[in-house]
Structures
1.
Amino acid sequence: MARPPLQQVLILVYCIYFLRHIWSLALWLFSGSNMQNQNNQNGVFSAVLKGKCPRCRQGDMFKHSPVNLKGFGAMHRYCPSCGHQFEQEPGFYYGAMYVSYAVSVGVFLVTSLLVYLLFNNPSVTAYVIAVGVVSALLYPLNFRYSRIFFTYLFSGVKYEPNRKE
Ligand SMILES: [Zn+2]
């Protein structure tokens, strides 16, 4: 049974609305944290979103932007702002693979659900292609945010805004 076109359009509109909502939430987190701190320091959400050092929340963890295909994964060894050593011990970031795995499962589920809703349960090939393409496109973000989340959750580093080395 084919889904009526109107229903497909409504689902699409809802998806766009949802994404817009996420975007304004991100903007709110950025601006909210900047308003709280007069000296333009990052709140924890803002710091995570921007990939900042967990100790000073000023220095960048990564050298290049996520759209830099060759360099998206290159990290600074030490924080450019406070000198914190990001890889505290050899192999510290192996644990980030588990975060990455969880994110991949999330991407898989959300993409599959969208394909199911938008294309009225198409063939298995369509799912495989869609999940493959979306995962590949999001790989740089997945890689970076896995390391960022892992650092913030498990490095045990405390926020020290005025620390300099
Ligand atoms: Zn730092």
2.
Amino acid sequence: MIGYQFMGKAHSHAYRDLPFFFDLNYQPVQQAIAGRNEQAVKVAADKMGYASYETDWRKLIERDDIDLIDIVTPNNTHTEMAIAALEAGKHVLCEKPIALSLLDAERMLEAAKKSGAVHMVSHNYRFAPAVQFAKKLINEGRLGKIYHVRAQYLQDFVMDPSFPLVWRLKKEVTGSGALGDIGAHIIDLARFLVGEIREVNGMLETFIKERPSGEMSGGLSSTTSEAEQMGEVTVDDAAIFMSRFENGALGTFEATRFAGGNRNGNRFEINGEKGSIRWDLENMNNLEVFFADDEEGLQGFRTINVTEESHPYMSNYWPAGHIIGYEHTFLNLFSELMKGIEKGYSPEPNFEDGAKNQAVLEAIQLSAESRQWVDIKHLREETRKKL
Ligand SMILES: NC(=O)c1ccc[n+]([C@@H]2O[C@H](COP(=O)([O-])OP(=O)(O)OC[C@H]3O[C@@H](n4cnc5c(N)ncnc54)[C@H](O)[C@@H]3O)[C@@H](O)[C@H]2O)c1
């Protein structure tokens, strides 16, 4: 694993717990972790259960006792690390968004195809049992033709103007702001549940344009540098966009870090000709469903606690009603990754999904600049010509 803070903790926890909950033929062995600061990476290796550490990620890739490279560093490092790992024949799990630009994402996809290695993107929210169950209902036709997807990812952790200029607010490190950080997740959920997006129209806004310097310090916390030098925020604080899907559905999306009181409000509602579903991460074990063929007088949204043994992934955990949490979405994702490595295929979401997601992100940025609709397929075709 390269990197060891917020996602480093989430992924390491999932590697440790995976053999405990899932009976798999292939199980992860936490062989080594890489970080630039020897003191800090040593502490992380001990705490998170890695047998060894490296202070240069390239050394990790050279090692022949490592099969899988897990990239949990800021976005500007993903492309170089993933391509180097794939060229060395390693399997790769990469955090989202996979790149800073669509061209880089396409380069990563090409490297993945050439390598024959297994590749996956860490869009963990797909792996909430309630989201997988929603997908099952949609696939079974329980909602019929899909008309609307309405998705929001609402946070508020940067609202205080004294929140420092961390890597998440610098374009050269992160690519985009709320758009790529949390918008990427709802784009993935919409693609997973409803299908491919044909075109988008979006707007971006940066409410606080200057902040004091500082660093992320674990989770979504930060520390301000003593110098307190002010610097320019170069990414969006909020992104709002609408889309048309290939299958005719309409999408409305909102990704913002300025929705006060919403700590991690990742929500969607999908309306189809025969029913609707609603989900909210902060109440992640529940799925609200409405079916138009329910008896008249008893119609309305009802709540299913998606914790029955028959529900996706739940037979690995506890008896019905004994809920699971955020961290288990990573275990579920990793169980698919281990099966992929065992059997030699790249489970979805893989780098193809990563590139499609990046195309939507880039299209929204282009749309916001030009105030025009942007066609996703055309953008990908034009970008792939530059490969
Ligand atoms: N799937 C999710 O829900 C989710 C949530 C948060 C973040 N992420 C993604 O995970 C990635 C990491 O985010 P985070 O919140 O863990 O960040 P973070 O700031 O908490 O941790 C980043 C880690 O990368 C290390 N690092 C930075 N540059 C490095 C380099 N050049 N070489 C080696 N190590 C380096 C840092 O020292 C730190 O350990 C990002 O791509 C982010 O978008 C995903």
